[in-house]
Amino acid sequence: MKIVREPKIYLVGRQAIDAGGIDAFLRDHGASWETDTETGAEKLCEMAGRVCYMSFGKGRKTNAEYLDNIIGVAHGSVLEHAVWNFLIVGVSRSFTHELIRHRAGFGYSQLSQRYVDESEADFVEPECIAADAELHTIWAESIRQSHEAYVRLVDGLARKFSDEPSATLRRKLARQAARSVLPNATETKIFVTGNARAWRHFIELRANEHAETEIRLVAVRILRILQQESPNIFGDYTVEKLADGSEVARTPNRKV
User: Fold this and answer.
1) Which residues have a catalytic role annotated?
2) How many domains, the chain?
């Protein structure tokens, strides 16, 4: 049994610009436009905003100025055109139960316990438990018992469904029933796609002191990645350290 105490977040996808399509649109409409950002998401958000007023070549010149105004006036729908894809691992089922409550602007694909054998599962231990030897012992024993029960149930259920002609179906039937004893601490993997507006909403709700600690840690780490990816969309956030050493994120531009 492996105990996991740190999540890992992989940025696996971002948008690319089709320069030919943009040039064709501008040419067909007798417009000209240049922007100073090389970030696809930032360029698309600016273009989307300018389409609303056909303001190409007018007004604010830099992408940072343009998007700063968009965020300041809470014209958040423009940010829905920017998309990033993350693969999050080393997190608990407790975490994903909370994460998938964020619906608008998100897409999810999560490891299936019906198909994936959890006999070699890892488990995520909360830091407040890991830091206390007595509490850690209680937690570890509970995990051990649950995991042993899962393994025994899978074996017994495999025999129970031995008459099923399909080996794949036998395994699925056994695992989907046996998983009922696995704890929320079971490690999982989830692929998450979200647009910039959705990510901002997620960060504001989950990267604050009132959020659960595991999802707050992930939210702050995702913010840091997005600030590197797109400072013009996420640069208004600041990360602050609390008295307990954990971190939160704040912005003056809430609910964009």
Assistant:
1) 206
2) 2
Helix, strand, coil percentages for the chain (3-state, nearest 5): 50, 20, 35
pLDDT tens digit string along 203-217?
Answer: 999 999 999 999 999
- Asked whether the beta carbons of 216 and 204 are under 8 A apart, the reply is no
Contact 158, 174 (CB under 8 A): yes
CB 71 within 8 A of CB 237: no
- Helices 196-206 and 213-229 meet at what angle, rounded to 10? 140
Q: Which residues contact 143 (CB under 8 A, 6 or more apart)?
A: 1, 123, 183, 185
Task: Look up the pTM and report it.
Answer: 0.95
Q: Left (φ > 0), alpha (ψ -120 to 50) or beta: where does 172 sit?
A: alpha
Query: Tokens representing 249?
Result: 């994120």
User: Is residue 170 situated within a structural domain?
Assistant: yes
Domain membership of residue 76 as a residue range = 15-80
